[in-house]
Amino acid sequence: MRTASCSPIPRLIHQTWKTRDIPPGFQPLRRSWIERNPGFAYRFWTDEDIEGFIAEEHPALLPVFRGYANPISRIDLARYLILRRFGGVYADLDFECLRPIDGLLDSLPGGAGFVVGLEPEEHGRLAKAVERGLPRILCPSFLASVPDHPFLDHLLARLVEARHCADVLDATGPFLLTRAHAEYEAAHGTEGTAAVAVLPPELLYPVTKEECWSGRLFDPVFWEQATRRAYAIHYWEGTWFREGAGHGVDLPRQVAAVVTDGRPENARSPVAKAEGLPLISCLMVTRGRAGPLEFAIDGFARQTYPNRELVIVCDSPALPQDDPLERAIGAAGCPNIRLVRVEAVRVEAGKRLGDQPGGLTLGELRNIAVDHAAGRYVCQWDDDDLYDPCRLEMQQLVLAAAGAHACLLGRWMIWWPAQARLAVSAERDWEGSLLCEKAVMPRYPALRQGEDTPVVKELRRSARVVRMDMPRLYTYVVHGGNTFAASHFETQWQLSTARFGGERCRALLEEMGKRLPVEGYRQAVAAFASAAPAIAGALPEKVLVLTPVKDAVAHLPRYLELLGRLDHDRSRLSLGFLEGDSGDGTHDWLAERLPELRQRYRRVTLLRHGYGFRPEIPRWRPEIQRRRRELLARSRNRLLSGALGDEDWVLWLDADLVDYPPELLARLLAAGRDIVVPHCVRPDGRTFDLNSFRVAGKEGGEEDPRHLVDGIFQPPRGAGRLYLDAFAGEAIVPLDGVGGTALLVRADLHREGLCFPSYSHRGYIETEGLAMMARDMGVTAWGLPDLRIVHADH
């Protein structure tokens, strides 16, 4: 959407590559520009497209274009000419968009019509920059411009003059751009559309070349800190000068590790050496539960270490049909997986195992797995966690380099999907990450939990152990069915070395999702928890359900019935109502039930405030929308300020919903977004909530100004907007506007100032205005197309 306050730069993104056959490492980066900027048109240029464009539009520059010895100079020239002709945004393919760039363009100082970013300060201290006396460097990898901006004419003139420079940095690249800008700024100043906005590195270039190439971005804490303010991140692939570039994020060149050797001096035994890569047996103990299991097996299948096997010990009989464990093994398509059923082991052992009540302990099951391992090394492989594809490769490299018998991770990631929390753990020996030479592996004690702690303690006493620091190799998931209770994980949260919630948790999970199936796992855990809520041991989030009510007596019994069916701990649910202008006794009806409600729920607040608004015409008529939604926004804000306490989330819920699933709240929370809505439909299945939409106008996603009525956009149904029924089958989609029939908002956003505008904010009001205000805060609203709730048909 563009209004008078928006940047004049066209909502159009340009990218280039040699052909349409884009390297796999660049494809997700390209998608990031398209998916995070749904209001922008997108144009992709090949070398052939570029030469045709220059031949048609700038034939006089063809000799310059064809005369460059290095192809990258042709691309530099092309990007300047493309922006001069069409305007918009140009981004190299090794750039990733992290958040919608509307916020970047709309915040330009002085209404500048051209945008360029500064490279990191460290680049100004590199030899070539020092030789040229350039303490700061402007980078052409991201540029934005209005068509025919005067700086581009100035730049092209300098470029023609420098066409014979031997170094591409001086001929067409950053050094030329930097010098040309210095000359231009001296002549034109820094105000108005003719000005050039030079953005600080943290917005577009938050990391240096060395930080990318050394693999430092694999450190989750560094990545999160570096990208906090960034709209995009440049990976400095340098395909024109770096061999092997374009493969994706580099792994760390160096890994911090500490070696301890507990063997007595007179009992030294040599560390086993093996020719080639030794076989590693990954050991999984499971009861075959559906959900996370398939991701743990898939994580094994995707390991980069080639010489491996997975031994699965299952303590439950196979189901006669469609056994989830058998299905997951088949889906992995990996030949080196062996399944051991404990019942068969009992038979082979003459039923000596598991005679005690309750069957085998976890420790005994792990010993069975070790006994069936064929590898020189064994590796614990739990059935409900996520593993980076290079986990085995990196642990084995460090173990071999240290000449150790065993390797452990000193930190790992801990993820609470239902609570949208992520942490880098405290520093300790994380037993679940153990990779150990089988010959020195102690036996597990017959314990039902904590069985691996004595094993690691004994290894520390008797063997050479290396502890490495690379937390992204292993993500421990807190899903409610873990061996330990919720209080254990709350302690780990408090002890963790880094904690991420809200938007930063989402951002880091998306980064991890490039290598892990984060979104699929989140959905699986939500379904798993919904199917078996009794095992959900994790402490639920505190949620405040807020509902403005007016003439709602006919709907409130069903409202309370549905609320009572939610599979969320009622001791963690608070309620808040604001009644106003009712003529049917709504306030008294609720007041009579307050004592009962306060016994059932954590807190209950009932407020009253009227505005005297009782229109004679239907509530959907355009001529009253501005006033109706203004008062609804004011009611929501008044209710929020009067009812919000220490809750983690706010669920705005309409009083006249007639049906929704008991897992509604669990699935909204499991989406892991700061603002999320389900798909609200009428009883006949048609979409009801037309405030939840994505703009899809002809001009790059802009709303049609003809649809402005009383200062707010009120298009006819389907005119330039896509509602959630247009995205059936998609798990989650970004939205430009949201409705309030069932709207989940992280409470901290409200505390930080996010409210329901009672005025026109960029042409939007109330819930739609909240979504637009959130975008200004760098937060995207999301919708779940296949999570349906039903609204009364009126």
Automatic annotation (TrEMBL):
SUPFAM superfamilies attached to this UniProt entry: Nucleotide-diphospho-sugar transferases
Bilayer-spanning residue ranges: none
InterPro entries: GlycoTrfase_DXD_sugar-bd_CS (IPR007577), Mannan_Polymerase_Subunit (IPR052086), Nucleotide-diphossugar_trans (IPR029044)
Gene3D superfamilies in the record: 3.90.550.20, Spore Coat Polysaccharide Biosynthesis Protein SpsA, Chain A (3.90.550.10)
Pfam families per the UniProt record, alphabetical: Anp1 (PF03452), Gly_transf_sug (PF04488)
Family matches, as PANTHER family: MANNAN POLYMERASE COMPLEXES SUBUNIT MNN9 (PTHR43083:SF6), MANNAN POLYMERASE II (PTHR43083)
Record protein name field: Glycosyltransferase
Organism for this UniProt entry: Azospirillum endophyticum
